[in-house]
Amino acid sequence: MRFPNNFLWGGAIAANQCEGAWNIDGKGMSVADVAMFKPNVDKKDYVSQWHVSPEDIAKAKQSDDVVYYAKRHGNDFYHHYEEDIALFAEMGFKTLRLSIAWTRIFPNGNEDEPNEKGLAFYDKVFKCLRDHGIEPLVTLSHYEMPIYLVEAYEGWASREVVDMFVKFCQVCFKRYKGLVKYWLTFNEIDSVFRHPFTTVGIIEENYPNKDKAEEAIYKALHHQLLASALATKYAKQIIPEAQVGCMVTKTLTYPETCNPEDIYLAYKDNRMNLLYTDVQVRGKYPLWIKKYFADKGFDIPMLEGDEEIIAAYTVDFISFSYYMSMVQSINAEKREKVGGNLATGVKNPYLDTSEWGWQIDPKGLEISLLDLYDRYQKPLWIVENGLGYNDKIEEDGTIQDDYRIEYFASHFKAIAAAIAQGVEVMGYTSWACIDLVSASTSQMSKRYGFIYVDADDYNQGTYKRMKKKSFDWYKQVIATNGESLYE
């Protein structure tokens, strides 16, 4: 067998992009609820798509709109979860990656007691998954920070937020003990620089210059790394069988040429991408980043005991998203650029590019798996990978997404190739297994799923669920544990 018998096939979603029900049953407002769909912005202009200003927040707080604030409606998983989980089970899912919205449990983030209605919702979801034989893989923080903590506490730059988040984690561990074994702390913790507002609640306009904003972002990052270690500590204490992983974006960067200057630029990008796993897996900050702090004059408050906590509570496995590779060049300003989710680089002439500018590189996934396993010798889990495409319904009612099948087949074979070379891969969860609102562009038309949701970019539609051609294809892949890829 090319995949181990216990390989965890499945899919991935996130509360802020699918649940909807943004203001019912006691839920508070999160950073996702102020993100807008901007139809007049170029779909490849990720800087404008992600950016949220203080004025944008103030406007959003006064609005009940659910058309342009698209993450407020998602795909309405909140009311469709039983139907959706039944479809996932029909595909044969072994696992589903999903997140708990912090603001469903603590609406502002700093309440004394949790919101029982929010806790009860996830009780139902996790029990439904268990009833269908699906193992939950739960992310504790997936771009869902309470907006109150952004405005009242300077986001994750405030040390007080660590304690609030840890309290939230402890409540989740105690409540869902026996239902959830696999946990992730922070989604794409490295995205702190790509979109600091969404990741750590940092509003860059609130700082006098770029250096001060960067200092605040590193301060917020330290607090998240500390909180991740503490969450790991309490998960192990409360749920002895728990397995806790980190989650990063794998942004593999190639040099444009064999010019040593190109190689050096690519090396620096790759080293930066490994910073986050170095801390969470090895348990300490690399010396180069500490020197960078000193050279910049950054004051990153590491209190007594912080580094000991980070060293003591490292993760059990490494999970990551992989969508594309990048290219670096000393002549980058003269080259055509491509990118996605704010990761931009020189266009690679050897790769195809999606309509949203994402380069498709399955070989890069194999290289990434080899790179991470050689470095850490820890189990790996691909928890996001997929193709956003503007799927069309044919006259006969079918959705012929052969391009998605081709994409997944090539990436699955890349995983098998890495496993054949000794890499320990726990599982794979596609992003996303059902259509939902895109993280970057807040669109429904950027579709990722095996399941089509009848809703458009302007929240028009029935929300009916429909199987795409890739649904039955993935079902066969899972049923044969990957062997159907080679028939």
Walk me through the topology:
Blueprint: E1 8-12, H1 15-18, H2 46-50, H3 54-61, H4 77-91, E2 95-99, H5 102-105, H6 116-131, E3 135-141, H7 147-153, H8 160-176, E4 182-186, H9 196-200, H10 210-238, E5 243-249, E6 253-255, H11 260-282, H12 287-296, H13 306-312, E7 317-321, E8 326-328, E9 337-340, E10 343-346, E11 352-353, E12 359-360, H14 362-376, E13 380-384, H15 402-420, E14 425-431, E15 451-453, E16 465-467, H16 469-479
Parallel strand pairs: 1-2, 1-14, 2-3, 3-4, 4-5, 5-7, 6-8, 7-13, 13-14
Antiparallel strand pairs: 9-10, 11-12, 15-16
Summarize the structure in short.
With 487 residues, the chain is an alpha/beta fold.
